[in-house]
Amino acid sequence: xxxxxxxxxxxxxxxxxxxxxxxxxxxxxxxxxxxxxxxxxxxxxxxxxxxxxxxxxxxxxxxxxxxxxxxxxxxxxxxxxxxxxxxxxxxxxxxxxxxxxxxxxxxxxxxxxxxxxxxxxxxxxxxxxxxxxxxxxxxxxxxxxxxxxxxxxxxxxxxxxxxxxxxxxxxxxxxxxxxxxxxxxxxxxxxxxxxxxxxxxxxxxxxxxxxxxxxxxxxxxxxxxxxxxxxxxxxxxxxxxxxxxxxxxxxxxxxxxxxxxxxxxxxxxxxxxxxxxxxxxxxxxxxxxxxxxxxxxxxxxxxxxxxxxxxxxxxxxxxxxxxxxxxxxxxxxxxxxxxxxxxxxxxxxxxxxxxxxxxxxxxxxxxxxxxxxxxxxxxxxxxxxxxxxxxxxxxxxxxxxxxxxxxxxxxxxxxxxxxxxxxxxxxxxxxxxxxxxxxxxxxxxxxxxxxxxxxxxxxxxxxxxxxxxxxxxxxxxxx
Length: 479
Prior knowledge:
The protein contains 19 helices and no strands. By secondary structure, it is mainly α. 43% of the residues are buried.
């Protein structure tokens, strides 16, 4: 039997695909097409023969999401962005109803702010669950069921009658809503090459940031109407279920290893040869792996890797300041300046205008980044994503100081509103710059960084974790 030759291609650390091999037609059938541990030994194959039957992408494979038409990938990017927008909108749409909720459940306005704080807290815990699910069962499974549950908990908040019910449903709404916020960027990496990914992530960043800035305007209009504060959550649920239904019918699976696993099963069934296989068929998600890898590894990196620690602290700091505006703007414009509820939330539109303006800064870095990637022979250059963050950091600080100095009368109201645009612009420049480089850096330089680290020595299993994605089966380095 003549075996096909392996061939390495450029692989991106955002997508855990493997290097393609050519396939041969085969013969023996499995009635179910499923791969079990016993089936690996039947028929008996040498290591090289077994590797030759490993299912991977062929050149220009139409099943590879990277090879789909640009228009279709744009449609998928829109759907993913809407999932992120629906989740982030849920965080802030209820904030203008803070006083109404405090009066209804007879708690102080400070306690009522837990309806916002607990939702954002759910954003911190949710990714520990959704990230491993997306890596084992795929992006669609990690996104759509979570969105369905977000819709249910939004309805639960809308029908709640006690403080505990409101706060608990809001917390779990944040846990489930964190799925698109944390996993959409990975899904974008599944379908877009490194050169184009920056543009896609810019759109994603607008959706993630646009939710907290548009939510108060929508929520205040509902709160002062005859509908009342409960409809802030009903509208959120309607929007979530609309995007969920769209995703069920129009969003395919995007994760390469899951698609290759399905391809292997299909080839075994159609060709009758059970030698076809893919390593993702052996990947399982159980309690032990969740505790020892999915939970412990991110926490260990957070507390032992100075780069991850610093970036995480800075990201959480600016993210917290963005959500702090949800409480500060009503104080400045409603309590101090005496504006009505709906009018006092209109300055949030300045934040959104700043978010849109930041797109120009992010997109202007794309031609420069593409030139750098070309000079690097097509390999990602994570450091080249960082320079716009210098501009974003300055804009963000200018906006904060400007807003603080002009918030109170007799300064004209337009001054803090303009400052809000600087805050929104600065944040939306910082956000994608923090989201893009870190995975690239640790996939490209992870082993060397860990070897040099005085805080986190490299364990044997982590050597495989860092190095395996970068070497083809012929030993050639790939990225």
